[in-house]
Amino acid sequence: MRVVRPQAALPPKAALPPKAALLLGLALLVPLPASAEPAPAERTLAQVKARGHLVCGVSPGVAGFSVPDGQGRWTGLDVDFCRALAAAIFDDPQAVRFIPQSSAARFTALQSGEIDVLARNTTWTLSRDTAAMNFPAITFYDGQGFLVRKSLGITAVKGLDRATICLQQGTTTELNLADWFRTRGLTYRVVTFANSEQTLGAYESGRCDAYSTDQSSLYGERLKTAHPDEHVILEEAISKEPFAPGVRQGDDQWRDLVAWTHYAMLDAEEAGIGQANVARMRDDAPSPDVRRILGLEGAYGERLGLTADWVFRIVRHVGNYGDSFARNLGDATPLKIPRGRNALWNQGGLQYGPPIR
After folding, report:
1. β-strands 117-118, 210-214: how paired?
2. 4: pLDDT strictly greater than 80
3. Are the CB atoms for 64 and 220 separated by under 8 Å?
4. Residues 162, 188: contact at Cβ < 8 Å?
5. pLDDT at 26
6. Predicted confidence (pLDDT) per residue in 148-186, tens digit
7. C-alpha distance from residue 230 to each of 58, 223, 224, 233, 335 (Å)
8. β-bridge pairing 241-243 and 54-58
9. 166 FRET partner, CA 20 to 30 A, in 20, 44, 254, 337?
10. What is the gyration radius of the CA atoms in the chain, in angstroms?
11. Residue (of 96, 121, 94) closest to 106 by Cα position
């Protein structure tokens, strides 16, 4: 039998005087000293600075967005975004390491900390946004489309009723197809593949009637075929595909920095500040707006954990959004993708940078 010994009575608590109680309550509201472990909002930027370079997850190869050349140098709109981020932090667009990510592995790489930011033609959706990820800004507005042979005579997506369609696994395309065809009472058959190379190969070999993915990617895929002129991209898009860089949740400072890197490139374009004239514009800033963007007024860079000239660094090394679009996707490139929805808001597009002020 266990004997329970009585405990000695505790002395009654002494009541604090009203003034002392008030001071104690206020003390509990005082923030922890700076020597405490840094909050998550400080961690990614601090880690990137300590490492000396950014680690960016990109697509293994999507023409115009992220493609390595024979020497391993990456180019593309997503690549330019990562270089702009590195330029803002280090004043060096080369201070970035690119790690290609498959569709299936990209989110795991971000969550595990293998990469600092995912800039890989990734669609912003609710389910992804609530799965420990944040999407700071839309860098490219796209939509799902179809590549078909001209010989089929198909001019609209409804002409693909009862067709076989090739697509890549691990993307939003299969769900979009199901929604669009079911809503219209049409039927189809899907053949899926692990990557874009296999998908295009199956399409070219005749295993399917159409190849479906983001319209921007189809421009590059068509150029890879043996006879590009024999294929056409249907004008109709069946979905909204807002591409956005991904960051981990719980890191507000890093999220803000990634978002404002894109917004700065848009604001610079709208203000007429480009790679060709940014030095002159800084020396003779024509307006308060330009002075704020280029860090001549205010402490906006400091709010992001950067220097005052962070936008000047971005534009000098990489250019504004229009510079990057023209260099990677525009009429001077083999892709010749229309600016369309990705034009500035005051030029009929959807791209809109909040003001730096």
Report:
1. unpaired
2. no
3. yes
4. yes
5. 34
6. 999 999 999 999 999 999 999 878 899 999 999 999 999
7. 30, 11, 12, 11, 16
8. unpaired
9. 337
10. 26
11. 121
Among residues 144, 105, 109, the alpha carbon closest in space to that of 125 is found at 144
- Pair type for strands 140-142 and 163-168: unpaired
pLDDT of residue 165: 98
The sheet that has 96-100: what strands, in order across it? Answer: 96-100, 54-58, 117-118
- Read off the pLDDT of residues 322-332 as tens digits, 9 standing for 90 and up: 999 999 999 99
pLDDT tens for 238-280 read: 999 999 999 999 999 999 999 999 999 999 999 999 999 999 9
Q: What sign has the CA pseudo-torsion 181, 107, 244, 278?
A: negative
Q: Can you list the alpha helix ranges (DSSP code H) found in 131-251?
A: 173-183, 196-204, 215-224
Domains and CATH numbers, the chain: 44-139+245-347 (3.40.190.10), 141-242 (3.40.190.10)
CA 190 to chain CA centroid, nearest Å = 28
d(CA 239, CA 64): 21
Strands (E), 60-181: 67-68, 74-75, 96-100, 117-118, 133-134, 140-142, 144-149, 163-168
The tokens describing 347, both together, are 């030029």
- Confirm if 106 and 66 have CB atoms less than 8 A apart: no
Q: Which amino acid is at 199?
A: T
- Residues present in the chain in total: 357
Asked if 148 contacts 204 with a C-beta cutoff of 8 angstroms, the reply is: no
Give the pLDDT confidence of 294-314 residue by residue, as tens digits. 999 999 999 999 999 999 999
